[in-house]
Amino acid sequence: MNDSSLKKIAFLVLLPVLVIGLCLTGAGCGGGVDAVTTVTLKPAELESDGAKESGSGGDKPTKSGGAAGSGPGNLVGRFILDGAAPNLSPLIAKGASVKDAEYCSAEAVPNQSLVVGEGGGIANMFIYLDKAPKGFTPEGILAELVFDQKNCTFVPHGLVVQVGQTVLVKNADGAAHNTNMKVVRNKSFNQVVNGNDRNGVPLIYEKPEPAPIKAACDFHAWMGAYQLVIDHPFAACSKADGTFEIKNLPAGEYKFRVWHESAGLLERSLKVKIEAGKDNKLEQSYSVGSFTKL
Q1: Are residues 81 and 21 in the same domain?
Q2: Cα distance between residue 247 and residue 10, in whole Å
Q3: Is 59 a domain residue?
Q4: 117 and 242 in contact (C-beta within 8 Å)?
């Protein structure tokens, strides 16, 4: 065998080795470079897209980014009356001759159609999301609430109740009351609550109501109060000083409703931005003229 033949055999033996070497260095072999490029670039592209999508409107929460300022935020606010509060006469004067007077007129029964506290704070204002934020899942067991009747007045005057939550309707008076909830979507609740019933009659709503509903007593016509029935925790009823707090809202932009018994729906789409990990402040004022049902 001559030298030329030996060189040809050597070249044929070494050719596969050279080809394999070229593939390993990324110099050829079809999809080798594309595969590496895909692994390197796609995560960066996804991160960029996520940042673009982090803003949202309506009830859709934004995505939080990073440990600093992550998690939910709180809405802390106050409702204030712009102008002088009206002087509303008691519904029942002290000592008046009425049914069950020993309980119902032992003290004056206040008119709570518009309760204004120190500094002009408006009590019994309901602020709530019409629907829960997208992706919200309820957790835990809901605590029992108490809806009482004392001196022929419902206590509290405004109450937020979640679907499935137990409300114990009690009676601190010696006389019986008839608690009649003016429901729209739920089963009727029209129950006599005997005098001094401290165990309470359970009330459980199965569906959210479109707006706060009225509680009435058929035995004592002046009695009235309101309950907001919803299927999530993102709602509040303002306290005597007009303050309220809604906790653990996912970060994002929301449209809240604001309702009062003497005005109806004051706000259908009150825009509020919630930043993660913060107490987000809100202060709203309304004139006396806003409460047209006084």
Answers
A1: no
A2: 79
A3: no
A4: yes
Distance CA 109, CA 92 (A): 5
Q: Can you tell me the mean pLDDT for 191-213?
A: 98
What are 21-51's pLDDT values in tens digits? 333 344 444 333 333 322 222 232 222 222 3
How far apart CA 105 and CA 91 sit, in angstroms, is 10
pLDDT for 73 equals 97
Torsion of CA 179, 185, 186, 189, to 10 degrees: 20
Q: Same structural domain for residues 25 and 115?
A: no
Structure token digits, residue 73: 């935020």
List Cα–Cα distances, 237 to 28, 70, 77, 247, 286, in angstroms: 70, 27, 11, 13, 16
Torsion angles phi and psi, residue 46, rounded to 5? -65, -40
d(Cα 113, Cα 290) in Å, to the nearest integer? Answer: 13
| Token representation of residue 76 | 């802390």
- Name 96's Cβ contacts closer than 8 Å, sequence gap at least 6: 105
Domain containing 182: what range?
A: 73-290
> Could you give the strand order of the β-sheet that contains 177-181, starting from the edge strand earlier in sequence?
158-162, 224-230, 213-217, 177-181, 189-193
